[in-house]
Amino acid sequence: MNVDIITPDQSLYSGEATAVTVPGIDGSLGILERHAPLISALKKGQVKVIDGSGKETSFDIDGGVAEVKENKVIILAE
User: Fold this and answer.
1) Residue 7: which of 58, 59, 51 has the closest Cα?
2) Do 7 and 14 meet the contact criterion of CB atoms below 8 Å apart?
3) pTM of the shown model
4) How many CA atoms lie within 13 A of 33 on its CB side?
């Protein structure tokens, strides 16, 4: 799936991933390929992205919104 993590200042990540974990306001959300459509508010925490080779990359955010649609994840982070 394609993942974009964007802040008001810069793009933190743009690329393919097999899994993404985000800090939803009601708990952690795990997103895998072909996930059902979803929009969720995010709280302060870590976004974790696992690429096709199994490498995990983490990004600290102060909140934001995540959208999952048509095998694409867009995270608008603060």
Assistant:
1) 59
2) no
3) 0.93
4) 8
Q: Are 28 and 21 in contact (CB under 8 A)?
A: yes
pLDDT, tens digit, 9 for 90 and up, residues 4-27: 999 999 999 999 999 999 999 999
Taking CA 45 as the corner, what is the angle to CA 66 and CA 41, rounded to the nearest 5 degrees? Answer: 30
Let me know if 38 is exposed, middle or buried by CB neighbors in 10 A (0-12, 13-18, 19+). Answer: middle
- The domain spans of the chain are 2-77
Residue appearing with tokens 């925490």: 45
Q: What is the CATH topology of the domain spanning 2-77? A: ATP Synthase; domain 1 (2.60.15)
